[in-house]
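A brief tutorial aside. Many learners find it easier to grasp structure tokens once they have seen a single protein encoded end to end. The record that follows does exactly this for Sulfotransferase. Read the sequence first, then the structure, and try to relate runs of similar tokens to stretches of the chain.
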Amino acid sequence: MRLQNSFKGRPDDIILVSNPKCGTTWLKALAFTIINRSRFDFDHHPLLTHHPQLVIPFMEIFNGNNDLNNLEKLPSPRILATHMPFSLWPESLARSSCRIVYLCREPKDVFVSRWHFENKILVGHHKIDLEVAFNMFCEGFSPYGPFWDHTLEYWKEHNTTADRVLFLKYEDMMSEPTKYVVSLAKFFGVPFSEKEHEDGVHEEVVRLCSFENLSNLQINQIGEMSRMKNLVLERSTFFRKGKVGDWVNHMSHEMGKKLDKITEEKLKGSGLVL
Ligand code: A3P
């Protein structure tokens, strides 16, 4: 509500959107690196010393050094992130010409990733029962509303204004990261030049932001990002496996089939396949 009442969108804002556990950390790292690539060389890059979650602020998640006033102070064009459904966006932003990148992911992997994440951040809590959590996910209990509704809202926006909303899938990006780094640069209005292609700058971006590279950096392995009572967010919590299809190692075949069926029903007629 605070954001809806006070946030002032700017026409040149770039907004990175995802449901939690869909690859937000990766998208933040990629967007930051692509947009700032003329400012930093790869050997002394801020991502070597700063967690990717902290190089781009969330609009609605306020911690120590980001609040609405600080978002106001950022120079244009701002790059901001959000998990909010489109229907909850502040009017000034929803109606502006800001560019939006939406990253979605296959829901079985999202659920498994979230289950691990929540078990890790809840210190001193008994392990969350996988089956109970699964049934809640299926019923639509997710931090930002039912998983499918969130994705469909942005899918609809993408279909209405494709030049404003770039719609990406984690799995596609994992299989062809270079292709998507090139598309992101073009979408941000900073395409790679021929010289950059020849020098392999787009490949350097992929390497710097890869799961293997980021998860092995000390800055992303040691220490806490925030702490609130028994909720402890360690820097390493945002890096687990970074694989497609890990759900098979945690969910039964029946659970997988149940979630696939729900996804099929929810997305029916939309043209979107997850
Ligand atoms: P897994 O739990 O399946 O490994 P978010 O950033 O939205 O919280 O999503 C976290 C998920 O993205 C985790 O998935 C995490 O391992 C994965 N991830 C983090 N950094 C990544 C990267 N650089 N490349 C690919 N996946 C990454």
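Self-check: The radius of gyration is 19 Å. If you spotted this yourself, you are ready for the next section.
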